[in-house]
Amino acid sequence: MAYRKFKADQLFTGEALLSGGEVLITSQKGEIEAIVPASEAGDDLELVQGILCPGFVNAHCHLELSHMKGRIQPGSGMVDFLLGVMKQRNVSAEEVQQAISDAEAAMYASGIVAVGDICNTPDSIAQKVKGTIQYRNFIETMGFIPATAPQRFAFGKGVFDQFESALPGRNSIVPHAPYSVSPALLQLIAGFPGNQLISIHNQESEAETAFLQNGTGEMHRLYEFLGIDLSFYKPPAKSSPQLMLPAFNKEQRVILVHDVHTSDSDLVWMEKNRVTLPEVVLCLCPNANLYIGNGLPDIDLIRKNRFIVTIGTDSLSSNYQLNILEEIKTIAQHFPAIPLAELLQWSTLNGARALGFESLGSFEKGKQPGVVSIENCQEGLSNASSKRIL
């Protein structure tokens, strides 16, 4: 069998950043054979500048919104951002499909090998069946009026069935957020057979917190636009995790996405109730948080707890690109004490484990995780770029 042998300035295994005296050996198709000392690797080395690492995992994306790039003004705030998406997402099918194709090509070139993707429509199926990138599809369901829960769930199930027919075994029905899903709809979602992996938009804005705590704030403008009479609504006076997580069981895994306003008390509560709650994964999307104007999570606080942390991009309606290295750069700029190896693990092995892609995320024998080079990073990450090389 012919092998490929890669040697870089440094090598990240998925868990550790090595000095660079090692050589990564793969099959021609990219299956990992071994990591060996350079003195044992023989000839025909492929020299790579910078850092060699496994393919990136984008744990949270909305590929179907790629046609909305640049359509929503940065800094609009959460409610105006949501209104902008609802008002502008309907364009021609040809434009939607071309934008999806272009966005996936850019993700692939930058080194992304797997994506946790939010889907409100079947628009992305045609691209995903090509198999360029692996996807975990989260069929997002909304419906805040309790009486409409059966109809809203049936609509989501219809989209789910289309994904399951084309891409079997990699799909879940999930709630959008606590301010857009009724308790009745949440119960239908949580109890759906096989729904083991869930993604929820969590504590993304101050408007969400105010609405759940006391029923006030900017969210009222959203419901006015939708024509929803909120006279039935009684604020639960709970944070999003304490409201949503108890609906699921400990055999399920819930990815809480954004976490901008996740507090120490939320983290302590999740830790204290770990034995009864579902497994919790936290997903950070810093560039989208800054684009919308929500600020950044307290990542130092999050790191003090024992939760798996992953990284996502959100969509091109709330980001300038779908590039995991750009998310890493933003975190490193605002939280410079976080070791690069930790950021890379969030972006590779942690993401793969969270989404259930056991063959990805690390350079372990038998895996086929993709091989990515991170270049121009000798003096920090500000000018770094990434590309897939296998």
List the helices and strands and how they pair.
Layout: E1 3-12, E2 17-18, E3 22-27, E4 32-37, E5 45-54, E6 56-61, H1 78-88, H2 93-110, E7 112-119, H3 125-128, E8 134-141, H4 149-166, E9 171-175, H5 183-190, E10 197-202, H6 206-214, H7 219-226, H8 240-244, E11 253-258, H9 264-272, E12 279-284, H10 286-292, H11 299-303, E13 308-311, H12 324-334, H13 340-347, H14 349-355, E14 371-375, E15 385-388
Parallel strand pairs: 1-5, 6-7, 7-8, 8-9, 10-11, 11-12, 12-13
Antiparallel strand pairs: 1-2, 1-3, 3-4, 5-14, 14-15
Tally of extended strands? 15
Q: Architecture of the largest domain, CATH level 2?
A: Alpha-Beta Barrel
Secondary-structure-based class equals alpha/beta
CATH class of the largest domain: Alpha Beta
| Largest β sheet strand count, sense and barrel closure | 7 strands, mixed
CATH superfamily of the largest domain: Metal-dependent hydrolases
Average pLDDT score: 96
Radius of gyration (Å): 21 Å
Uncertain segments are none
Task: Describe the structure in brief.
The chain is an alpha/beta fold.
What does this structure look like?
With about 400 residues, this protein is an alpha/beta fold. It is about 35% helix and about 25% strand. The two termini are about 15 Å apart. The mean pLDDT is about 95.
Descriptors:
alpha/beta; 7-stranded mixed beta sheet; TIM Barrel; 390 residues; globular; 2 domains; 4-stranded parallel beta sheet; 33% helix; Urease, subunit C, domain 1
